[in-house]
Amino acid sequence: MYSLREGKLEDLPRVLELIKELARYEKAPEQVTNSLELMKEDGFGPNPVYGFYVCEKNETDEIIGIAIYYYRYSTWKGKRLYLEDIVVTESERGNGAGKLLFDRVMAKSLETNCTGMMWQVLDWNEPAINFYKKYGATLEAGWLNAHLQDYEIRELLKS
């Protein structure tokens, strides 16, 4: 029904579409400021900072899902694979594509000698929470996400 492969440069337009679909699902479409140009540079330029897998529907070769990951370093645990996003287009959810993608990313973490992997899930996203619970994943409470945008950093460093 589905096949998996590593993502390629020519996949990026569809990848960005799926990212925007996820943002609509998470009720934050206006927060997607990424672009094809940035994704090309960041994923296929001289210093790639992320990788991804695509899940295709066998009969059409249409990309119906993606898993985007990168590596981070934990001072407590060492090298970790960070799963940024798994996205399966709405019409294909519940048919096994998410499992294929998640399993592949888990395998990638072992292939690259990571001490484990991590990701985030919104506290209201029950389908995703239940999906991860099937794996016995630890869902931590007590951590708050923090971020600064580039324009905020510029202003702060000026002062």
Automatic annotation (TrEMBL):
Record Pfam families: Acetyltransf_1
Domain named N-acetyltransferase: residues: 2-158
Keywords annotated in UniProt: Acyltransferase, Transferase
Leader sequence residues: none
InterPro entries: Acyl_CoA_acyltransferase (IPR016181), Diverse_Substrate_AcTransf (IPR051016), GNAT_dom (IPR000182)
SUPFAM superfamilies reported for this sequence: Acyl-CoA N-acyltransferases (Nat) (SSF55729)
Domain of life: Bacteria
Residues annotated as transmembrane: none
One GO MF term attached to the UniProt entry: N-acetyltransferase activity
Record carries keyword Transferase: yes
Family membership: Belongs to the acetyltransferase family.
Identification of the protein by name: L-amino acid N-acyltransferase YncA
